[in-house]
Amino acid sequence: MELKIMICLLFISLCLIHPSASAPALNYADALEKSILFFEGQRSGKLPANQRLTWRGHSGLSDGSTYHVDLVGGYYDAGDNVKFGLPMAFTTTMLAWSVIEFGNRMAGQINYARDAVRWGTDYLLKAATAAPDTLYVQVADPNQDHHCWERPEDMDTPRNVYKVTSQNPGSDVASETAAALAAASIVFRRTDPAYSAKLLQTAMKVFDFANRYRGKYSDSLSSVVCPFYCSYSGYDDELLWGASWLYLASRNASYLSYVSSNGYTLGAGDDTYSFSWDDKRPGTKVLLSQGFLRNKIQQLELYKVHSDNYICSLVPGANGFQAQYTPGGLLYKEGDSNLQYVTSATFLLLTYATYLNSDGGSVSCGASKITAPQLISLAKKQVDYILGQNPAKMSYMVGFGERYPLHVHHRGSSIPSVHAHPSHVSCNDGFQYLYSGSPNPNVLVGAVLGGPDGNDGFSDDRNNYQQTEPATYINAPMVGALAFFSGTQKMT
């Protein structure tokens, strides 16, 4: 049986994981630059003088004002004009983690990457410190926003503000916010110590709030967060995730004790196989595994075991393999925005490979062992697929390669810029652009879209939001993955 597994793994490494010899070399450094540039297209608020995506303009400058709170800034999550707190915080955490793990490979892009993190944390700090035992978690009613197709610069739908409190808790979104602030505090520890300290102090307060007043934010705010960003996995995973980041950022033993004492209660023993804005369990296990692999913290050894289980689920032919791949070799989770699962899994593959290399370890999949180079090869296959080495010969990153989608489901990108068309485009007038067969007039450079279906099929149709809509949480893990290969490319 073990021989069969080894033969199968060898076949995979030769046929599935490694790109064909005829495939052209990909410019990962260019893709990295574009993947970070995308976040400038998602900015809300007053744009800075060094804004590079110049077709965008200022927007949401009065967000929060009718509620006597400053909520200007942050990111629009995808192709709409809503600021959703849960995916925004996860995006910020993953951008920060990308810089932490692979910032040394980003070369000239490192400052832009930090800027992308800071645009998120500046907003999250406002949302977390406006009032005691309160976290502002959303701006705009998505039900009304989604009835319009208009540029963020033209928004005239209600900019309602939503919050979680001690009476209406949201442990999931609060813990994710704490994770984002804590992770970012590591990013800025050397370049801006005062800002780093502020981030960490705020993260501690927000996590305490999340832990003391427990509940799902989608129970408190169901009408405006569901079905868009319901907390399907609950809040246990975010509590463990937030505590883990606080331990890494602060090295305060109380957070390690929290993780050790509450881990299994909060889902550490659950081997789930999808890492996303909703479910943090696989990411938490990989994150904590470094404490065992690098620092030999014995109480974290179980996270290495569960990380192995997660990795084994992704590797075709391995004992414990559970994932699905398209005929072209793309990891496939589900039809709507599948690439979000691909980029997050790819990031974990590379991060875990890095941890293993530092320890000289491997992944245990039953009787077989999977090495760090094998994880890197599988991750490379996913990145290369996204960048155009796929059956359709199409890059799913806008603006990268010779062929990429032109009809992106994104309001600001699909309507002529305020600089080219200064007059107001109203809610209903914008729909002519949604249904137009013409390419988007503004290129949302670097946006990774939802991607192809389970048979590698893709329809470049602006109304096909399942495949053509970008999202910040698709791009954020991709930044780290591209930094890894960009650095590798430069060193070879």
From TrEMBL:
A family per Pfam: Glyco_hydro_9
Keyword Hydrolase: yes
GO BP: any one term: cellulose catabolic process
PROSITE patterns associated with the record: GH9_2, GH9_3
Positions of the catalytic residues: H409, D460, E469
One Gene Ontology molecular-function label: cellulase activity
Record keywords, A-Z: Carbohydrate metabolism, Cellulose degradation, Glycosidase, Hydrolase, Polysaccharide degradation, Signal
Domain (Glycoside hydrolase family): residue spans on this chain: 28-482
Listed InterPro entries: 6-hairpin_glycosidase_sf (IPR008928), 6hp_glycosidase-like_sf (IPR012341), Glyco_hydro_9 (IPR001701), Glyco_hydro_9_Asp/Glu_AS (IPR033126), Glyco_hydro_9_His_AS (IPR018221)
Signal peptide (residue range): 1-22
Catalytic activity: Endohydrolysis of (1->4)-beta-D-glucosidic linkages in cellulose, lichenin and cereal beta-D-glucans
EC number: 3.2.1.4
Catalytic EC class: hydrolase
Family: Belongs to the glycosyl hydrolase 9 (cellulase E) family.
PANTHER family noted in UniProt: ENDO-1,4-BETA-GLUCANASE
Name used for this protein in its record: Endoglucanase
Native species: Elaeis guineensis var. tenera (Oil palm)
Lineage: Eukaryota, Viridiplantae, Streptophyta, Embryophyta, Tracheophyta
